Amino acid sequence: MEQYILVKNFLSTEEVHHFLELIQGNKGLFVETLGRWGLGPRYQVIDGEVIRTRLPEVFSFGERRLLARAEEMAGQRLQWLDSPRRSMRVQRYTRRGDGFRWHLDGHTWVILLALMNSNDGQIHVISPRLTRFLKFLLYPLYVIPQVFSVFPHQRISLGPGDLLFMSGGRMLHRGVTPKEGGERVLMVFTFDELGKKHNWFRDRIARFLNY
Ligand SMILES: O=C(O)CCC(=O)C(=O)O
Ligand SMILES: [Fe+2]
Asked: How far is the CA of 35 from the centre of ligand 2 (A)?
């Protein structure tokens, strides 16, 4: 799989409504990230540990419907990211400028499942091939990640129910919110190759940066 797989309407309209209602009814669970002086992501998040205890339906949905599907799409055996906190998340972007700078995920694979996108939010991705060259610039250019935008990238919009599967660990990507008003809500599920050992160092960095 060279790029990514987009599955339109992976969730039915009823399922989308159901999850949205569940999440709206638990808005108090969202924690707002501060974006670490503009370097980290800015968004609202419910982390995987909270999902397990307070939104068990989202957790079991992931277990039931997504792991096998992700393996099929990746063409290999996978495991959930070995961090209960970061293996699943619900993410919400409501303000212009909310989102993620160009980055690589600490885990190899990710499913982004959109429930709502009324602010034209997008995910921008750079191909794995180009990423192989550019990733060496990621840390030297840490404070000016915008420079990656000059390289060719694809812009993906997910509508309610759409699923995006990609190798977020091998493709530079970012999430953008171009306008004020409306909101984008994603359920995020993360996977590694079967047998991959947890990298505590990367986890510490990710935790520091809030993603
Ligand atoms: O906002 C997005 O669409 C991208 C999210 C993302 O890259 C992540 O959660 O690691
Ligand atoms: Fe990411």
From this structure: 14
